[in-house]
Amino acid sequence: MFGAVDNPKVPFEQLGNIATYVNGYAFKPSDWGTEGLPIIRIQNLSGSGDSFNYYSGTYPPAIEINKGDIMISWSATLGVFVWDGPKALLNQHIFKVYFDKLEVNPTYFRVAVEPALERSASKVHGSTMTHLTKKTFDSIMVPLPSINQQNEFASFVHQVDKSKAIVQKCIDKYDLLVKSRFIELFDRYEKVPLTEMADITMGQSPNSSTYNDQGVGVPFFQGKSEFTDTFVQINKYCSEPKKMAKKMDILMSVRAPVGAVNLTNQECCIGRGLAAITPKDEITDVWFLFNALRIMEQQISDMGVGSTFTAISKDDMKKIRIPAAPLPIQIQFSNFVEQVDKSKFIETVEPDHPAVFQNVHGFPSFGLIST
Fold first, then answer.
1. Sign of dihedral through CA atoms 240, 242, 247, 248?
2. Which of 79, 106, 223, 231 has the greatest count of CB atoms below 10 A from its CB?
3. Nearest 5°: phi and psi at 238?
4. Which fold would CATH assign to domain 190-324?
5. Backbone angles phi, psi at 358, to 5 degrees
């Protein structure tokens, strides 16, 4: 387990004792405008939406965000983010971190808190939108070595970030190749509603008392937090499922963030944050549809509505239009993407987490990394 709190070699501290966390302001749609400072919402941090609303009125200085500030989203999407944009204002459900209690390296803090939030996901409240209460948040334990050790570890993180930037350029190149091939093959075909190519099942959250991590019942997925590059990752089970997805269904995140997709390699229960898309075998190749939806993710995300948390309904999903290409052409595209993915993997062994560098160079983990 990341950051196991029973490691006697690593000093741990509660988040509430490390820093002060100021929640963003509850901006109303009537506050939004086209001029002023951008309002940072969860979708702007999670990548599910690039467009900003703006505010030109007065505001509490505590919610002002500048380049390099650390933010933590504690509702719907749990994560730690570093702001790299212009001066902006923070929306509700996101904390701005003020390091005013203990001596902490902000870069080290970012890396340490991410896995701690993952551990705390089992303590989230809400059947439709997961969120951490302030009490739970403040009690989260994170490894906190000396400031010198933090600084040393942070230098590794900076090396990783530089490597990731190089890798990301390569990934972007391959992604552009896939998009170009998609347009080349399918622009000539009629675009039909998604429901002509697949069946849609909207998720429904079971009673939280039926959740468990002991493998009782069926795998249970709630949202994008369980997604990987391709197949969804099992963290929870449910003993009394309500809505089920079939093996090799496409799961789409329909609530903040909207549009991301993964596949499931077994029958599973889906909560209200997901929809299951079942391709019609006789006319739709699952890998074609999966990759088509990945290419269309931003377009689908832009369909989301909601002032605080964006979401799409089943009716919205019916408006998604897919090229009605013959099955052999779909399979041809799927095979092309498979070959591109293989080339991408060979060329980009991505150092996604400082754990990669730690494992290679033997750098002390401070409880961040399983051993």
1. negative
2. 223
3. -135, 130
4. Adenine-n6-DNA-methyltransferase TaqI; Chain A, domain 2 (3.90.220)
5. -60, -45
* pTM (predicted TM-score): 0.67
* Pair 158, 37: CB distance under 8 Å: no
Q: How distant is the alpha carbon of residue 351 from its chain centre? A: 18
CATH of span 12-144: 3.90.220.20
| Position 246 pLDDT exceeds 70 | yes
Which whole number is the average pLDDT over 257-266? 94
What pLDDT, on a 0 to 100 scale, did the predictor assign at position 262? 98
The pair of three-digit structure tokens given for residue 113, joined into one six-digit string: 């808190």
| Nearest residue to 158 (alpha-carbon basis) of 5, 369, 349, 354 | 354
* Chain position carrying tokens 């390296």: 105
Domain boundaries along the sequence of the chain: 12-144, 158-186+326-371, 190-324
pLDDT at res. 124: 56
- Of the candidates 370, 371, 363, 288, the one whose C-alpha atom is nearest the C-alpha of residue 328 is 288
Task: Please check whether residue 212 is in contact with residue 241, taking contact to mean a CB–CB distance below 8 angstroms.
Answer: no
Q: Which of 5, 21, 14 minimizes the C-alpha distance to 75?
A: 21
- Do 12-144 and 190-324 have matching folds? yes
Predicted pLDDT at 307: 53
- Of the pLDDT bands very low, low, confident and very high (cuts 50, 70, 90), residue 198 is very high
